[in-house]
Amino acid sequence: MLLVVDSLATNGAVYITVELARRWAPDGARLAVLQRLSDVPVVTPPPGVAVVQLSASGARLRFALVRAVPRLVRQARQVDVVVGGSEIGIGFLVGLLAARVARRPFVVAVHADLDDALAEWVPRRLHGLYYWAHRRVNGAVCVAQGLVEPLVRNGLPVQRVHVVRNGIDVAAVQRAARGPGNLVGGDLPVVVATGRLAPQKAYDVLLRAHARIVGHVPHRLLILNDGPDHSALVALARRLRVQDSVQFAGAVPTPLPSVARAAVFCLPSRHEGLPLALLEAIVLGVPVIAADCSEGVRAVLDDGRVGELVPVDDVEALAQALARHLGDGGPLRERALRGPAHATSFDSEVMTAGWTAALVELTLPRHGRSPGRPRPAAGCPGKGL
User: Fold this and answer.
1) What would the pLDDT profile of 204-241 be if each residue is shown by its tens digit?
2) Following CA atoms 366, 356, 18, 132 in sequence, which dihedral angle do they give, to the nearest 10 degrees?
3) What is the sign, positive or negative, of the torsion defined by CA atoms of 318, 259, 325, 347?
4) Facing residues of 18 across strands?
5) Which of 78, 314, 344, 355 has its Cβ near the most Cβ atoms within 10 Å?
6) CA count, 13 A, side-chain hemisphere, 334
7) What residues does 84 pair with on adjacent strands?
8) Mean per-residue pLDDT, 123-144
9) Residue 166 has pLDDT above 60, yes or no
10) How far is CA 145 from CA 113, 137, 141, 310, in A?
């Protein structure tokens, strides 16, 4: 396998791709990285993972592609299948192109609703190109069942889609949480959130909910990431007069020590696939309040058994949930105690087995066999279609 990512910038899709590369490394898997970023925290591949850097550090993308595409084609010719680490990004487009030139099958990992992801992250003039490209992949592996319908509606045959839930290395998360980098301190309880500062993550909702209750339920809000909405959110905090109780810490390299010590982890998103940050929080037994924005979020919280779900974009509901927990943390902490055991159902070995089965199924036509109707990925709680 050759796994392709835009960069190693810290996000859930990159973490999952790197984990798959680690698991498949003994079988010769390689990780191809299109851009080398120097100004953001990055995921460091573990020893044993072969990394192919396709462009020089700091190179402008249009010049980097001149070198990257031929290198990627050469790499693709040496493998059986090319895997795109995300449903959007230049890595997806270049990976598909290289696979076609090399005459290798291309399978894409889908971590978010395709329509929502394009609307939020991709210039409108390029939407048609992405929709066209998604109709031409050999297959897609979605992290949640709810992500399938946009792909099929766009024209990808249903038999070319599998569902494999994200997996997590429970022991590794727990080790990382005990390391340095904790930013939670002081006498007040701290609400922690870690998503990228972008409209999808609904930080405007979280700030407004925080502002409604901070006067009578004292607490601090710690936001551990950066993104295009940073300036607008800082300005909103000032308008709401809560700037003194909100800390925008930026994209810290080690968020888990802070998450582990949070009074509550909050995910107010408008849409998600199956968020790795939420999985990490339940692994650590942290009380969680999340917007009920996807089937994946509901699965991680076991339909509310291990955390509290609130309606999407509902400031009042989120404020009330935060006030309840910060006023009396017992009930939500009791639910959180079930989190670590529930997280074992999202095991990274199960995820890898599911991906392996899906790739075999989706690349069978290369060997002159009919693909038939996909089976559920072996050992994976997610279902094939």
Assistant:
1) 999 999 999 999 999 999 999 999 999 999 999 999 99
2) 40
3) positive
4) none
5) 355
6) 3
7) 4, 108
8) 97
9) yes
10) 10, 19, 10, 21
pLDDT at res. 365: 56
Q: 130 near 118, Cβ under 8 Å?
A: yes
Tell me the CB-side half-sphere exposure of residue 182, using CA atoms within 13 A. 13
Beta strands in the chain (DSSP E): 2-5, 30-33, 50-53, 82-84, 106-110, 139-142, 161-163, 190-193, 220-223, 246-248, 264-267, 288-291, 308-310
b/e per residue, 151-169, with b = 16+ CB within 10 A?
beeeebeebbbbbbbbbbb
* Angle at which helices 127-134 and 114-121 cross, to 10°: 150
Q: Is there a contact between 329 and 278 (Cβ–Cβ < 8 Å)?
A: no
Nearest CA among 117, 12, 7, 99 for reference residue 61: 7
Could you give the CA distance from residue 233 to residue 343 in angstroms, rounded to a whole number? 32
CA-atom Rg of the chain in angstroms: 21
With 0-12 / 13-18 / 19 or more C-beta atoms within 10 angstroms meaning exposed / middle / buried, residue 36 is middle
Is 380 a residue whose pLDDT tops 50? Answer: no
- In this prediction the pTM is 0.86
Cα–Cα separations (whole angstroms), residue 10 to 62, 252, 287: 23, 10, 23
Give residue 230's pLDDT.
97
What confidence tier does 60 reach under pLDDT thresholds 50, 70, 90? Answer: low
Residue with tokens 């999340």: 290
Mention every residue, 6+ apart, whose C-beta is less than 8 A from residue 369: none
Q: Which pLDDT score is estimated for 4? A: 97
Residues whose CB is less than 8 angstroms from the CB of residue 187 and which lie 6 or more positions away in sequence, other chains included? none
